[in-house]
Design brief:
Chain lengths: 288, 263, 337
């Protein structure tokens, strides 16, 4: 029973962290390897706004989210736009900038136990005999809400449909008057904000550490590859698969194997079914 | 043309790309030593047929037999290793290398090592020299600097020959030419046709996808017509071009009659 | 109102044309035109240890060579086989740990551990990278990025191979001069060896795989196999670097999976000029001392070369050696249209 509960919590948390990356990579084919860096940066900005400037918590969060979105947009506008279309250069450039941010934060002294964010609500409740704190339940609720909202957004709104159109055929979208650069900018900003949202929700459960940036990147990539690029359903399913697998290994093998699970998931997917569970990029299996 | 078992048997090739049926139960036989032309309007699935047979595309259903062996679903390099080769419609030589070096790569393949390559005489000498020999055979002037030019600077006519040479280096049994006449001037085609005929005389079986019908009919023994992924008919050039269905498929019966007048 | 238009023209220098193939033997001028850059490099590298002021700086030279091997590995894979490896640290860590384990557990001397770690490590790395070879290059980049991160965490978590402390007391080279000249000679050997390889028939196949893998398949060759061979060669270089490193520092630990070994070679290649094989070595010669100087500032050094790397990638600069080679072989002038 506790596996079920912790598994669900972990899976939704994974889905949250991966959503931003999945949105940007799956929809405009821009691999944002600075995703992990944006996650951590948002946490620190929130901390700074709340602790140093003394802003009320919610205002601090809002400010941090906006700042992260702007940072993501800036990264696109200043860096990635120049290497647009060259996949390897995009990866190197976004990875380099993510690295610069994360290691810069590390150098700036942000390490150790002293940086935490408070949880939204204190207290816990017992579900089926297992203690679950309110904050984690809030994570599940908000996380599910975000995931559902994203489905609605990409399937019902004009902006979302435009983004999906761009994902399917960029040239056709360009011909129809959809400005792909602007769309990519919007997607990057949005994806970064999602990363920030995940950070704000999940960091209170632990400390703000720079290492989390790398972990988040690995997990987000794992979810996207296992689920298949460009598929919302796939990402959600993959998050649950990996989430439960992680909890199972924690219960039966020990808590240090979490990253190994993610890596194994990636390798297995690449061996067995490269395009992922619901991947639309069948190109990997058929090429002309 | 020998009778007996066809060298290539293709049964019920079907390929769906999402909702689009690019090939719909296409079947035909290829006899050893013949030249089979595949014609049809754009989008009729001609290149898809070649891609499916040579393994570059996975079929939705259907089977391909080469000399009686089932080669459906095998990876492209294994099929090429058996001697079933193809050229690419969009030419892609190794642009940064000189023309003769382009041939070093196929000459490095296991098949070339086994068979000695075309003109290798059973023993593979220095690949550079064999490469130049092959180029000379297909029409590059040996003593000029043309074989040494970087592939990116060669005109279309030479590039088409280079594509063909890359197949020939493997000493193939079947060569599938995808629009090898397109983009060539009249004189370039005039010099390609004897080359094709010579290949046939050496026992190589050819499939030729073409839009240039007049030139194709000069060399092809049989012709197969595709339309919207389905085989309309097959037969000799005359039978095929006299058919009403084929004329309708090409949207321009006058054009067809013009061709028939001059064939 | 028509402005005079000109276009830039690049023409080979006279001496380059005269020095082509056998005509180079005509005179000393042509011979030296060809030989001088190579001689400068070889002599320079061989002489450097003698002019270094202190032992500290002599060690830096050894580290430069270690990184040069990694940079050669990256350049070879990226520009001659078409695979971008974002995790050079993976090779270093694998080679390093194997050498350390062989040395401590089996008591083998560096004479044996280094070759064994090179070949064994290369085999292991190739096998681990096999799943992503049939796929598009992006996947190779992603997987190589993650292996070092994952391995470091696994070793730390499982506390195997010495855990966070690492394996101590590994044997070192007989003396400091052997240590330095061994790595310098190794770098020179592989530098010129690789340059030779890429013009051999096998090298051409690698370049073909990079240019147009469909055509290679159509010629009856397995692209996955040749990519694997390329990865084997590159990982052998990396494992060799790791094994030497372990014997220099007499210690093996998870820091070998650190980002330095992944990022600095890439930065060195991009700055020095990708595709030239000499450029990456030059890049290391520049970046490693810089990184040593910044060592006091903690991880600022990673920040700096990440930023430099990003800058170069974004500006799409061709790199120092490519620029240098072009200037050496060609001259430019404006021609009226």
């Amino acid at each position: 029973m506790d596996i079920l509960i912790y598994g669900t919590i972990n899976s939704i948390a994974l889905a949250l962290t991966a959503m931003g990356f999945a949105l940007v990579y799956g929809i405009c084919r821009v691999p944002n390897f600075a995703h992990g860096a944006l996650y951590v940066v948002c946490g620190f900005i929130t901390w700074s706004l709340v602790r140093s400037l003394g802003l009320p918590y919610l205002l601090g969060i809002a400010g941090a989210l906006v700042a992260t979105a702007v940072l993501g947009g800036l990264i696109y506008r200043v860096v990635l736009i120049r290497v647009r279309g060259m996949a390897i250069s995009e990866i190197i450039a976004s990875y380099a900038i993510g690295l610069a941010i994360l290691e810069g934060l590390r150098w700036g002294g942000f390490k150790g136990m002293t940086y935490t964010l408070p949880t939204f609500v204190e207290g816990s409740v017992f579900i089926g005999g297992i203690p679950v704190d309110y904050h984690r339940m809030l994570v599940v609720v908000i996380g599910a809400g975000v995931v559902a909202f994203l489905w609605l957004f990409t399937h019902q709104t004009r902006l979302g449909l435009a983004l999906r159109g761009m994902a399917q055929d960029e040239r056709a979208s360009l011909m129809l008057g959809i400005d792909s650069d602007r769309m990519a900018l919007v997607a990057m900003a949005f994806g970064s904000a999602l990363a920030g949202l995940a950070a704000v929700l999940l960091l209170p459960l632990g400390n703000i550490v720079v290492e989390a940036g790398y972990n988040v990147l690995i997990l987000a990539i794992a979810v996207c590859i296992v689920g298949g690029l460009g598929s919302w359903m796939g990402a959600v399913l993959a998050a649950f698969l990996i989430g439960f697998a992680q909890i199972l290994t924690v219960v039966y093998l020990g808590s240090h194997f979490q990253m190994v699970v993610a890596l194994l998931a990636i390798i297995l997917t690449l061996i067995l079914r490269p395009s992922g569970l619901f991947g639309r990029q069948k190109e990997l299996e058929e090429r002309v | 043309m020998t009778g007996g078992e066809p060298i290539l048997k293709v049964r019920d090739l079907t390929k769906a790309f999402g909702g689009v049926l690019a090939l719909n139960r296409v079947s035909f036989d290829l006899h050893e030593g013949e030249i089979l032309g595949i014609i049809g309007p754009n989008g009729s699935g001609k290149t898809t047929v070649v891609n499916s047979i040579t393994g570059f595309i996975r079929l939705t259903s259907g089977k391909v037999f080469f000399r009686g062996k089932d080669i459906t679903g095998k990876p492209p390099h294994k099929i090429a290793d058996m001697g079933v080769t193809r050229t690419f419609q969009i030419m892609r030589p190794y642009y940064s290398l000189p023309a003769y070096k382009n041939l070093v790569i196929p000459l490095f393949s296991p098949r070339a090592k086994r068979t000695g390559g075309w003109r290798g005489g059973g023993r593979l000498g220095d690949r550079n020299t064999v490469g130049i020999d092959i180029l000379e055979e297909i029409g590059f002037e040996r003593d000029s600097f043309v074989p040494y030019k970087i592939a990116s600077s060669l005109p279309t006519g030479y590039l088409k020959r280079l594509e063909l040479a890359r197949c020939l280096a493997l000493k193939p049994e079947i060569v599938m030419c995808d629009e090898v006449f397109s983009g060539l001037s009249m004189s370039e085609i005039a010099s390609m046709v004897p080359l094709i005929e010579r290949l046939q005389m050496e026992g190589i079986t050819l499939i030729m996808i073409e839009h240039r019908l007049r030139e194709l009919f000069r060399v092809a023994n049989r012709v197969m017509v595709l339309n919207f992924g389905e085989k309309l008919m097959e037969g000799t050039a005359e039978t095929v071009m006299a058919s009403e269905e084929v004329k309708k498929a090409y949207f321009g019966s006058e054009e067809v009659e013009e061709v028939m007048k001059h064939a | 109102m028509t402005a005079e238009q000109g276009r830039k023209e690049r023409i080979d220098r006279g001496i380059k044309v005269r020095a082509e193939s056998i005509y180079a033997l005509m005179s000393w001028r042509e011979l030296s035109y060809l030989a001088l850059p190579r001689l400068v490099l070889i002599v320079g590298l061989l002489v450097i240890p003698l002019v270094m002021p202190s032992m500290y700086w002599q060690r830096v030279i050894s580290i430069v060579c270690i990184y040069s091997l990694l940079a050669l590995s990256f350049d070879f894979l990226a520009h001659y086989v078409g695979l971008v490896s974002l995790g050079g640290a993976f090779f270093v860590g694998t080679g390093g740990y194997i050498a350390a384990i062989l040395n401590k557990s089996l008591g083998l001397s560096p004479l044996f551990t280094i070759p064994a770690a090179t070949l064994g490590g290369a085999a292991i790395c190739t096998v681990l990278l096999l799943p992503c070879l049939p796929l598009r290059g992006v996947y190779f980049a992603i997987v190589t990025l993650m292996y070092p991160l994952a391995f470091a965490r696994v070793i730390e978590a499982l506390d195997i191979f010495g855990g966070t402390d690492g394996i101590m007391g590994v044997a070192s080279f007989p003396n400091q001069w052997v240590e330095q000249y061994f790595v310098i000679v190794v770098v020179l050997l592989f530098l010129f060896g690789l340059r030779r390889l890429v013009n051999l028939d096998l090298g051409l196949v690698f370049r073909a795989v990079k240019d147009n893998d469909q055509a290679v398949r159509a010629s009856g060759m397995s692209v996955t196999y040749y990519k694997a061979v390329g990865v084997f060669i590159a990982s052998a270089l990396g494992c060799l670097a790791g094994a030497c490193l372990v014997h220099i520092y007499m210690w093996s630990g998870i820091s070998q999976f650190a980002l330095d070994f992944s990022v600095l070679p890439i930065a060195a290649t991009v700055i020095g000029g990708g595709g030239t094989l000499v450029g990456p070595v030059l890049g290391c010669l520049l970046l490693v001392p810089l990184s040593e100087l910044l060592r006091d500032f903690g991880t600022l050094r990673i920040v700096s070369y990440s930023l430099i790397l990003m800058g170069f990638v974004v500006i799409r600069s061709e790199g120092l050696m490519v620029y240098g080679q072009r200037k050496y072989h060609q001259f430019e002038r404006w021609v009226k249209v």
